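# nightly structure sweep
# worker-07 picked up a monomer target from the shared queue
# config: single-sequence mode, recycle default, output format = structure tokens
# input follows
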Amino acid sequence: MERTEFLRKQADRFLRLAQECTDPEICRQLMSMANEYRDMLEAPEPDPQTGLGKAS
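# output follows
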């Protein structure tokens, strides 16, 4: 649950910064980072038995 909350907050933070940003390149980078955090939200939680997403 902590991971989900952290990822959601980070995505929201980067989106908010992108909305306030006046530099188009920085805005694009912030949007990209927000999208990466949202993608991580949709990914399954890493299995503590196998480590951080390591294949078995």
